[in-house]
Amino acid sequence: MSNESRILLVDDEPDIALAFKIGLEDNGFNVDAFDNPSKALSNFKAGLYDLLLLDIKMPKMNGIEVYQQMKEIDKKVKVCFITASEMHYYEEIRKEIFPILGVKRLIRKPIRIDDLVKDLRDELQ
Amino acid sequence: MDTAPNSRITERTEVLSGQEYVMNTIIQFLSKAEKIDSCGDYNASSLIFGVEEYKKLLSDIKAKGIKLRYITDITKDNIHYCKELLKFAKEIRHLGGIKTNFSVSETEYIASASIQQQKENQQQQQQEQPIPQVIYSNAKDLVEQQKYVFESFWSKALPSDQRFREIEEGLEAEVFEVLTNSEKLSQVLLDLARSAEKEVLIHLPNDRSMMRLERLGVIDDIIETSKKDAVVKILCPLSKENLHVVKKISDNAPTIEILNGNNSPYGMYIVDGERFLRAELKEPKAENFSEAIGRAVYSNSKRSAESFKSIFELLWNERTLNEELKRADKMQKEFINVASHELRTPTQAILSYSELLQKHPERKEEMIQALSRNAGRLQRLTDDILDVTRIESETLMLKIEPLDIGGLISNIIEDYRNQIEKNNDNVKLYYYHEPKTNDSKIIVEADRARLIQVISNLLDNAIKFTKNQDNSGGSIYVTAEKKTTENGNKRQEVILSIKDTGKGIDSEIMPRLFTKFATKSGTGTGLGLFICKSIIEVHGGKIWAENNADSNGATFTFSLPISQQQEQERLSSSKLTSEKRGM
């Protein structure tokens, strides 16, 4: 089931976007990766992906804005956020904005591929 | 019925005109009196000494031993008349602004009927004229009333010697006025605001107070005052509601300092350290000043104004410290967040690629490059953080040696050109070196590695913001030239500038460009320029930046002193040449 899940990955760091793409594909996911949020958004269509994996801190457009716009297009798409920032930095967002947007999971970098895969599978269930 | 003519006095009250009648009435009045209580405006004393007949009357008063009590407005213009008058009167007191002219004895009342006219005549003719008209009365009730009026004035008036001292020592009469009439209060505040010349300190009780002052017109007065180079400080609770007033003030009078204060039940307005108004806030939500304010005290007492000023300064300093602590705390948190993000990002890449490398031997080369790139990034960040720590603890060690900065730049430029070509970046790098002759090196005493660090940092930034700017690509111009500065003793320096055609410096970041954590690019720690500035400054140089006049890109410039030794060698060799020529 989850082994055929389709994932859209957006991270402004090209090295990380590529590493995650390879790592997740090794684990049977179908992954499209972008290091430019606007490009990811213009390629996005309803029903194309099961799950979004979005970095939060990106120049020009942050991950939360990306998700809000994608959710307008695809109401059913699931999401996991990932960040290298301090968790307390997003404390308010986690407490106040995530529940409104229906976001449950914020993953912390650095993370090993196996742990990331586990988190994503949990989210997809 | 036969009655003795004086046993029953007919009561009469009349107005008498003409100098002769007036004079006779006054003489009659004096002849019957043993005690006279008299009030006169600030002109009266000069009038008495200005008219010969009146002066004579004074001598009569003294000769007859009439006890004269006199109230007048003693000013620095009439002080000498008042002192003269003291020789004839039993006691004189001062009542500021008194406008009435009357005298009352045991049984009679006499008053000047026309003080206004008298004043005008006096101004026109520059000569004292006798009173043209008086009111006379011996009506018992009227006399009693006037005695009462006099006593009320007398009790409020200031003894003359005290007033003389005030004037002679240049002291203003101290006023403490309790104000309850809200209209009058508004006027007092407006007058106070308009009178300010050197300093205005305002402590407002709540956010709406600022809006009320704006409605009253006081904010406009403050703005005007600040344009006269006056110090203006406002301590006021700040909120969304009064933001527009704060903005108006900072737009029109940027020198006015405004700090966010706590709510308080009182407001203070202190002007020039000499006058103040302290008012109680009765209706915190009221629209207008007059509705909001309760009881207030106005005073021009310097000592009290000073003590209120010191209370204000205490509050002000406490708030300043508080703001600084908050800012430092925010900076600290910001740094931890930026630093952790920047440390974890390459760490994530290194962790992932080292895992993937085992499973994907076919992508070995690509992954090793990524590993190396991210390890380098981690190293640079570590160095930056350590540099900042060294700079702040003043333990930055320099390995100073004489070096040719022209040659150093040439080498760096060469490296960067190769790098640009390798990365296929759409940017061209030019270098101009003045003077052009090869043998004239520009020698500076500097730490080679640190100078490379600064120049590389500036070039990295220039490339980052210039490459791929648009399809035509961008350019970076590096120039190095010698200059002599003329401040005090002549000093030779080298000026190095790096001009790019990139997107320029964000106006928001410009004022804190060289401070820590200044970053707008979304990536980076914002430590680079802070480190550059510190390195250049420990070398005795300066660094600055500006957006280009043609609104295309930015220029970063730094100066470094040229080695004295090289200068001396250059000078002596040129001397040698000229001596040879002279031979």
Low-confidence segments of chain B:
1-7, 116-125, 576-583
Distance between the termini of chain B: 143 Å
Q: Give me the oligomer status.
A: heterodimer
Outline of chain A, from the CA principal axes? globular
**SS elements, strand count of chain A:** 5
Question: What's the short version?
Answer:
Chain A has 125 residues and is of the alpha/beta class. Chain A has five helices and five strands; from the N terminus they run βαβαβαβαβα. In chain A, α1 links the parallel β1 and β2.
Write the layout of secondary structure elements.
The complex is a heterodimer of chains A (125) and B (583).
Chain A: E1 6-10, H1 14-26, E2 30-34, H2 37-42, E3 51-55, H3 63-73, E4 78-83, H4 91-101, E5 106-108, H5 113-124
Parallel strand pairs in A: 1-2, 1-3, 3-4, 4-5
Chain B: E1 13-17, H1 19-32, E2 35-40, H2 44-50, H3 52-64, E3 67-72, H4 79-85, E4 91-94, E5 102-104, E6 109-112, H5 115-125, E7 133-137, H6 140-156, E8 158-159, H7 160-168, E9 176-179, H8 182-195, E10 199-203, H9 207-216, H10 218-227, E11 231-236, H11 243-252, E12 257-260, E13 266-271, E14 275-281, H12 289-292, E15 293-299, H13 302-359, H14 364-392, E16 400-404, H15 405-423, E17 427-433, E18 443-447, H16 448-466, E19 474-485, E20 491-500, H17 528-538, E21 542-547, E22 554-561, H18 564-582
